[in-house]
Amino acid sequence: MDSAIDRHLRCPRTLSRRASDDYRPPFPIVVARAHEDVTQVVMAYLGVQYRGDEHRAEARETLRRIVGQFGLDDGPGHHDTTHHRDAQGRDNLVAVGYWRDPERYRRWSARPEVAGWWDADERLRAGVGVFREVVMPRVDGFETLYPFTDGLPGVGAVLDGVSDEVQEHAYWGAMRDRIPRSQTDRMTGSGELEVRGDPAGRAVVVGHDDVALIRSGQDWSGTEPGERELYLEEVEPELREAMDFLRDRGERLGCYSNRYVRNVHLDGRPLDATYAISHWRSLDRLERWAESHPTHLSLFVAYVRRAKRLPRLRLYHEVSVVGADDQSYEYVNCHPATGLLRDARRPD
Q1: Region of residue 197 (phi > 0: left; psi between -120 and 50: alpha; otherwise: beta)
Q2: Superkingdom of this entry's organism (predicted)?
Q3: In sequence order, what are the residues at sequence separation of 6 or more whose Cβ sits closer than 8 angstroms to the Cβ of residue 203?
Q4: Which residue of 49, 185, 290, 308 is 20 to 30 Å from 91, comparing CA positions?
Q5: Is the distance from CB of 41 to CB of 32 less than 8 angstroms?
């Protein structure tokens, strides 16, 4: 049985794992693997925010422009597009791009066609808002988890393969144990979010050390009709309730932002897949919610009770813990509770 931590990232532990060395998980799970030359990846969430049917066409055209920019030299190795409605009733279309090399991302984002468009004053006069939330986790600061080995979504799509069956899963604390930094670092998080600029116009949020980001996905496109009905009628409502709780009341738990999104085609047609993208003050705040909060425990029980009847449902996640210098958040013409703007304070 393999370890979730790849061989070249292992080191003598100064912090213990939550599981014993002879632990054997109850079912197989794999993680994504990257060649040793991959030291850092990029996850860029590029969003379009609008309100009302009268701005939908402009929003879709803006999303198409962003995705079109992905086709330029040094664009992402993988991307997907989503839709969600936030707590303020605004619709949001988001394209997320993944790069396996930060330098390629920097070259791409500095291209005149990209930087010039984002920086233009026209973004402030448009009928829609746009935002960029970019994190660049180092390979010792993120982990993945998949019960399947083909067609990996998210960051797995730009990496180089999968592991053998790994040991660190199916127990509370396994998420932390899969992150290489956990061998020697508690990753507790420090500092505060700060906003610079005009929250009603163009604003930048400066992150702090060890912000945690989780993308947790659900794909029912390959299920049989009975499975689909079971998932959508008995499991998905529990998931939505938990996600809405974090969206609306997660601030006091340390959740900066939570979006439960539906994957969509570029023309807006929905796909049979969703995921939550959630920013947290620290990994331990995320762990505390997952292990003890009634909303997550109810979701956990709802799934476990039906798991054997959902063999084709594809669940996965990726979790990153990111240093302050490896984050950037920009909001243009968005409402002041968008993303990490909500919890950011102005510097004294």
Answers
A1: left
A2: Bacteria
A3: 195, 196, 197, 330, 331, 332, 341
A4: 290
A5: no
pLDDT computed for residue 236 by the predictor: 95
Distance CA 130, CA 50 (A): 9
pLDDT of residue 23: 94
- Give per-10-residue mean pLDDT for the chain (348 aa): 96 94 93 97 98 95 98 98 97 98 98 97 96 98 97 97 96 95 94 92 96 98 96 95 95 96 96 98 95 88 88 97 97 97 88
Distance, CA of 96 to CA of 289 (rounded, Å): 25
Q: What are phi and psi of 43, to 5 degrees?
A: -125, 110
Is-catalytic flag, 279?
no
d(CA 57, CA 243): 28
Reduced to 3 states (helix: H, G, I; strand: E, B; else coil), residue 27 is coil
Q: Which amino acid is at 306?
A: R
The answer to whether 127 touches 49, Cβ cutoff 8 Å, is no
CA 254 from centroid of its chain's CA atoms: 16
- For residue 127, the tally of other CB atoms under 10 A from its CB is 14
91/215 Cα distance (integer angstroms): 20
Residues 6+ away with beta carbon under 8 Å from 271 = 221, 262, 263, 264, 265
